């Protein structure tokens, strides 16, 4: 009897998870079609359902925003992990498997962030500016996304410093600093896209590497 109940519960959980993913994908389609300021009516229409269904699965607008942000977060982290070379302990970047000089890895990480901005600008605005939310506590609505990216960057810096026999204690603040710089530049780039993505990546890499190189010896001087 309990096995049957557990089985039904598991199937229902899987159904709910699938339905949530479908609704998030519909929300992303609506954002791309109508812009970051899309309303719930347009989102529901893109999903071919009602707002009530969305609220049933996400409770409120904040819940839907959080689910969309998690989806975007996962995509950025996947691209960032590929750029920096995954394979380290606990999922941290593995410099040996990256197969690139440190400066090139930093450039690839910066470019992977800017790639999302260029590829999906309205989705990026939706996550960063959170126009779907009428009000928030005054904090940064996109903090969870940028914090995860900063964690990835910090892990890369920590591994590099440790492998060079240097104190890795500054890695956390450096990772947050690099990501904060890239995000600020990306926001400005969206408003005033005077540079190509490649040009912006180069400028930001030069700026970041100018400071990081002092503590992160690069075995390839020509990089």
UniProtKB/TrEMBL annotation:
* Pfam families the record matches: TetR_C_32, TetR_N
DNA-binding region per Swiss-Prot/TrEMBL record: 39-58
Q: Which InterPro entries match?
A: Homeodomain-like_sf, HTH-type_TetR-like_transc_reg, HTH_TetR, Tet_transcr_reg_TetR-rel_C_sf, TetR_C_32
Domain HTH tetR-type spans what residues?
A: 17-76
Task: Report which superkingdom the organism of origin falls in.
Answer: Bacteria
Task: Give GO MF terms, alphabetically.
Answer: DNA-binding transcription factor activity; transcription cis-regulatory region binding
Q: Which UniProt keywords apply?
A: DNA-binding
Q: Which PANTHER family match?
A: HTH-TYPE TRANSCRIPTIONAL REGULATOR RUTR (PTHR30055), TRANSCRIPTIONAL REGULATORY PROTEIN (PROBABLY TETR-FAMILY)-RELATED (PTHR30055:SF227)
The protein depicted here goes by the name: TetR/AcrR family transcriptional regulator
Please name the source species.
Pedococcus sp. KACC 23699
Classification of source organism = Bacteria, Bacillati, Actinomycetota, Actinomycetes, Micrococcales
